[in-house]
Structures are given as C-alpha cells and as structure tokens.
C-alpha cells in the first residue's frame, strides 16, 4: 500500500521502479473516479520520484508550473491516504496548495509563473542567509509564455541560483506551438551533435543559465544520477535541465491519445458544449464572411475550434499560452477591418486585462471575446473558477457584455456579432443543459420570461435562469407572483426594462462574484429608489474546488435558498 511506504532514500532502484508502478496505478484509479489531469501526471512519475530521492523536501522548495502535473508529488508528501478525495469538495486540490501541505511552497494554476516565483523564493533565501535548493518544473507548453522570458531577464540581476527543469513532453492542452517549442525540439534532436548543441546553449547562457540536456525523464536511475550532479552545480549557478518525458507513460491509451486524456471528467450528463456551438457558428459565419478570424491561446480543441482550424487554416491563429499577446493580435486584426473572435477560458482571460482595456476597448475595435468556462467551473478550484469576468469587464468603457440564456441564444449572439462593429464579450459555461425557447435578440435589450406582480428576479446565464424559473413556479403555487427577467446584457443595463419594473422586491442572480457584477450594477441603478433588493452571487473570496452543484449550494445559490428568501420577505 502507498500509505505504508518508507522514506524513498532507503530504497533500491528496483524498489523505486516498483513504487513508480504503484504510483501510476493509484493516479489512474483516482482520476478515472474523480476526474482530473491524467496523461501529464503519468509522464511525471519517474522524474518526481527522482526529485524526492535526491532533494530534501520540504526544506528544499519545488514549484510546479501550472501545477496539474503534481499528483505524484502529493502522493509522496504525506497525502496518499487523502488522495481518494482529490478534487472533491473539502478534499485535496488538484493543484499545489500552500494551505494544504508544507511540501507545497507556492500555489499555481496558470502557466508561466514558476521561474519568477522560484527566483523570488531563492532571493528571499539569500537575504535571510538560509541554505536550501529551489526548483521550478515547467512544461514545454508553458515555456512559450512571456512571463518566462521576463524571469530569464532577471536571472543574472537577482543572482540567486535555482534549478529550472523543462519537462518536455511535446504536448500541452493543444499541440504546443511557437518558435521556442521548435527550438526545444531542435535541441532534443541534436543532443548527440555536440557542436550544434553548444551553439544552442548560447541563448540560455546569455541569460545566466547553464543548459544541460536532453535526458530521458522516465529513466529513473538516469534522472537520479543527473539530479545528484546538478544539485552540486546549483550551489553557485542557475541551471536549466532539459528532460523528455512521455505523456501518458504506462497507460497505452493515454500514450496514444495524450491530448484527449490531458483532462478527464468525473461524470458527464447529457449536455451540449457551448464550445461546439461556437465552432459550428464561426464556421457558418466564415463561409460567407472572409473577415472572420479565430484566435486562441493553446486551447483550440477545448474551445470547440478544431474543425474551424482545419477548415480555415489561414484564418486561424493559435499563439500558445500567451493570452495578452492574443488580445493584441486581435486588436491588430481589427484595425485592418477583420472580425477576430478571441476564444478563451474565463480564468485565463484575466491575464489579458490590460490589453482588453488599452488595445481593444480604448480603440473601440470590433473584437468579440468568447469567454468559455465562465462562472463556477468546478473541481479545478480557485485558480480555474470563472467568477470574476463580469466584475473586471464591467468597468471598461466601450465594451458590451452578453450572457446568453442557452445555446440557441448564444448562436444568435454570434451570428449578429460580425456586424456589431464594437468590442463585445460573450460569457458562457462549458455545458448547456436546457433551452428556453427562441425570441428576437436586440443588443442591449433584456427579455421577460415570466410575469408576476410581487417579485422580479433578474437573472443572467443558463444556470441562473433555470433556478429563477423553477423558483417562480414554486412561489407562484403559494400565491406570490414572480417575474423572471433574462438579463442577457450585463453591460449596458437595459434601463428601459428596469424602469418598467413595478415590483418593489427585486432579486438578482448571477454565476459571478457580487462585487462589480450584475447585482452590484442593479443595486447602483436603484440606489435612490425604494426597491428592496436581494443579490444572489458569490462572496468576496476565492471559490474552492468541488462540483458545480455542491459549490452553488455551499454559497446559497439554489432553488431552496431563493424560494426561502422570497417566501419570507415578499409579503412584507
């Protein structure tokens, strides 16, 4: 049993290889049950065991870039007994988490941060006169991110030695793109050609890094020997160690399908992906409108755009994990009369904030931002929840923010967007489970879905509309008339409909943080009225991991909570 294993340093190579098999089986069994990141973790088993064998954690510090390759690390650091709770509400996180274990020195979840963090930790070590090693483990997909090169520029200046391990498995969520990835591939291919390898080393040396590689990260004994050597070198100088691992190692299906098994869902109900609607509709638009261009940041399949990229390669741009860059590319396309669609997860859109403000909206450019996984995204936790986009986008001038009530309305918004001519953001969850009937769509105008004279529920998005309609039916059976408004445009507010609401009691519902979201905007609008307003939204905190339904219940956004409020207050 994994729970009973002694310290790694007492084991032979044969015993360590046997342990790797047990770790791999534990990861497969748990991810198949709970969902999570599978293929990347399977490829990291031997490398992680070698790191724990050679270094002395938690005294030494390790930062996993993004962090979805940390499962072996968690199993080896006192969390094997809890591993069955992975990604479950109140269980262990699927990412490194300082609050969870002293072995996790830095929380991660977004790409490109590990080297900067490692430099900061190493500098703090030196300032305090302490003596420990600092290691950043970064994948070839993250290696394209601009933060990496900002960190490289500081290596010599900060002058605090660290070890950077490039985990090169030739695959991020999308196939890795970009010149740096091609550079790493050349390094790999030319490893035995010493003269060429020496030339390649120069780029890293200019940053103050000793380059060493390429090594087989799934060769446990080889990795232990190399890491033991490198451990001595990083006492005086920063080293970048280039390691090749096989994504999905040890599980044939994962090895053959690394992209499809990057992330595994725990359970799927019958649904329609909004991403599939995005891809189909953009193809429909592109067939007759040569201005349409799709832009992603290393998430093409997950966003539903694989078919578009195959059908319209000249109008498809994947910039790699460079979200800010993607936003500016869209701005450049739009200045020349094209209609770019920037598809991105809500949690990663945050990285483009400055560019949305300065490059897209201040120039009032016709860029459509398609925001996937908006609202609660579930078991990936704090770093991946999408509950902030309404808040940070609502303060930007010139930007229209749309929230479709279902996939049919989403399609209508997309079809109208090409000729909208202004910055537009459309936010939606991953999956759609209901449709509510078609109606005319006018930009900036809301829709009345149900009538009632006592209470008006103003809700946006499929999840909230579903709850609101159920609530209206329940409280209607107890004599309380409840109107339901589809607030499909959070910005601008439909002030004409707001003015027409005669109900004194107003309830707002959104799959977003309250501060800066729909509820806050409605509160501000009615601030000088006698309306009694109750907001159902997420509080001013980071939302942990758990299923969507569990988290909505936890934060009081449910049919029962809304019904209880209305039944207690509507007749006052």
Descriptive overview:
- The chain is 39% helix and 17% strand.
- The longest helix has 22 residues, at 13-34.
- α18 links the parallel β17 and β18.
- It has three domains: 2-260, Rossmann fold, CATH 3.40.50.970; 278-432, Rossmann fold, CATH 3.40.50.970; 447-569, 3-Layer(aba) Sandwich (Rossmann fold).
- α5 (114-127) packs parallel to α6, α13 packs parallel to α15 and α18 crosses α22.
- The protein contains 22 helices and 21 strands.
- With 572 residues, it is an alpha/beta fold.
The structure class reads: alpha/beta
What's the number of helices? 22
Q: What is the typical, i.e. mean, pLDDT?
A: 89
Helix content: 25-40%
For the biggest β-sheet, the strand order reads: 10-9-11-12-14-13-19
- Count up the domains: 3
Task: Spell out the blueprint of helices and strands.
Blueprint lengths: L12 H22 L1 E2 L1 H5 L1 H10 L6 E4 L6 H5 L38 H14 L6 E6 L6 H13 L4 E6 L10 H11 L4 H13 L3 E7 L3 H14 L5 E6 L7 H5 L6 E2 L7 E2 H15 L3 E5 L9 H6 L4 E3 L4 H13 L3 E7 H4 L3 H9 L6 E5 L16 H5 L6 E3 L4 H11 L6 E4 L3 E2 L14 E4 L4 E5 L2 H15 L5 E5 L2 E3 L3 H6 L4 E9 L4 H8 L6 E7 L9 H7 L4 H11 L3
Parallel strand pairs: 2-3, 3-4, 4-6, 5-6, 9-10, 9-11, 11-12, 12-14, 13-14, 17-18, 17-20, 20-21
Antiparallel strand pairs: 1-7, 8-15, 13-19, 16-18
